[in-house]
């Protein structure tokens, strides 16, 4: 029996609030709901590079209005940070526009609003906030199956695209998909690019890459992906939703950007002009601390090593989690990297509730429960698996 599940019924902030309250009354509670990276003592993981960069912030600039797109230096910092050694290649091939947004969430909102598509194609297992954002811009959701036999289900996406008469915006949350931790291979990206090109011969297709977790995959993401980006035909609009929240552990500063790449300069100029008007109407001006922070932090010597250590921390938790799941025969979706892993269940709401009796808090998702490896330590992982096993066997 398949139970109905709606992302709109899941209020992650409310669930996290309940879990935090329970933990403040009882430290034994396991709060695996939080999409933030905590150290093994449950404190927000702090990057020394960020601490140093914050000291460089000019408070006079911070108090002033910045240009709506974040300014030329922010644009340049984004390009350097995302494309690294490939930045010149990207700029040779594309015209590129970008605008500051309120985190990755703001970038998604801006892309969904700006793009001409009425329908946004999302994976069935997804970050539940997508549904709220699509609703906020009055568009429709189309759903494709994310994984089949443990790998990206391209056929499902193809069927979904073929079934649409109208233009569509395809959302790919990669690498380290929330909530599964799946990372697409280069071959899967190549097949996706070919499919989108083929479909774009008969209808308007846009692609949005939500790279909120880009620094948690093992490869420098855009250096890895650039040969594939180059395959896309120029009639495919490509957006990149950047979030600094997870990359630098600064969730509250709302560091984000929407980038738009195209070979056609007129289209890029139109994006710049239109998005500027939206930004002015929605939030006025950027958070100037987040802008200055990105401009400074990317030059800090310790950043790369610290990000490597953060990846290492999560990988050690993931290895422990997956090892225990295999021992206990607990099924989970293919996990490769990232903050979350998702245990399979046909009854996510029931499993979420049942775990609370063992003082374990998780987030229900489509045919699964999401567990934030980012916010629990190795001992908590052991206890969480014991509780999961008990509930599954009950
Ligand atoms: C898949 C995904 N995209 C985007 C975001 C946006 O993050 P923020 O708005 O905090 O930058 C998140 C945050 O949890 C996410 O999980």
Describe the structure.
The protein has 394 residues and is α/β, with parallel strands linked by helices. The chain has 2 domains: 7-46 and 303-393, Aspartate Aminotransferase, domain 1 (Alpha-Beta Complex); 59-297, Aspartate Aminotransferase, domain 2, CATH 3.40.640.10. Helices cover 46% and strands 17% of the residues. It is built from 16 helices and 14 strands. The chain has a 7-stranded mixed β-sheet, with helices on both faces. A 3-stranded antiparallel β-sheet has the order 11-14-13, covered by helices on one side. Helix 9 links the parallel strand 7 and strand 8. Helix 2 packs across helix 13, helix 4 crosses helix 13 and helix 9 (186-199) packs parallel to helix 10 (221-229). The protein is globular. The two termini are 18 Å apart. The model has no long low-confidence stretch (mean pLDDT 95). Pyridoxal-5'-phosphate binds at residues 35, 103-105, 127, 173, 178, 210, 212, 243, 245, 251, 256.
CATH class of the largest domain: Alpha Beta
Low-confidence stretches: none
Main β sheet profile: 7 strands, mixed
C-alpha-based Rg, rounded: 21 Å
Question: Mean pLDDT, as a whole number?
Answer: 95
Structural class call reads: alpha/beta
Query: What would you call the quaternary organization?
Result: single chain
SSE order, as H and E? HEHHHHEHEHEEEHEHEHEHEHHHEHEEEH
The kinds of small molecule bound in this structure are: pyridoxal-5'-phosphate
Strand content: 15-25%
Number of helices: 16
Number of domains: 2
Number of strands: 14
